Amino acid sequence: SHPGDSPRCAVPKLDLDKVPFPLKMANTKFDLAEGETYVLNGRIMKKDGYFVFQVDFETQPWLATQTRVQNPYFVLDPLAVDQANMQIMGKVGTGELVQMPVVVKRFSQGALSTVGLQILAPPVSLGSQ
């Protein structure tokens, strides 16, 4: 910016693509976007007969929106759970913090439609906390 200009945020570009700024330094909170890929930290558990992923807000404070804090659970895609069954079953309900790459998708859950997570690779242990 130049002297006298009002302050503004400049997003750097690389080969015409925007370069994301580090979220640890931002005071912005947002929820996951449908169709986008993320690497998330959390815990796997069973809730209401479904495998769910409970988001860990301590390691991902940018996800702690008011709505998400009230409901930190994402349903895991049943097909993906079946494919990664051995790695997931050992993590269910243990309180173990895991990390896994996911895509946010819309799933039918009985008569309801809900946003959930499709697992791209088995969870990796980050330890108990």
Key attributes of the depicted protein:
single chain, 129 residues, 3 helices, two-stranded antiparallel sheet, 5-stranded mixed beta barrel, mainly beta, 8 strands
Task: Tell me about this structure.
This protein is mostly beta strands and 129 residues long. 12% of the residues lie in helices and 40% in strands. It is globular. The N and C termini lie far apart (44 Å). Residues 6-12 have low confidence and may be disordered.
Total helices: the number is: 3
SSE order, one letter for each helix or strand: EEEEHEHHEEE
The structural class is mainly beta
Largest sheet features: 5 strands, mixed, barrel
Strand content: 35-45%
Global outline: globular
Q: Kindly report the spatial arrangement of strands forming the biggest sheet.
A: 3-4-5-7-6
Summarize the amount of helix as a percent range: 10-25%
Low-confidence stretches: 6-12
So what's the oligomer here?
single chain
Radius of gyration: 18 Å
Average of pLDDT: 74
Helix and strand layout, with pairings?
Elements: E1 13-14, E2 17-18, E3 37-47, E4 50-55, H1 66-70, E5 73-76, H2 78-83, H3 85-89, E6 96-109, E7 112-119, E8 124-128
Q: Quick gist of this model?
A:
The protein has three helices and eight strands, in the order ββββαβααβββ. With 129 residues, it is mainly beta. Strands 3-4-5-7-6 form a five-stranded mixed beta barrel.
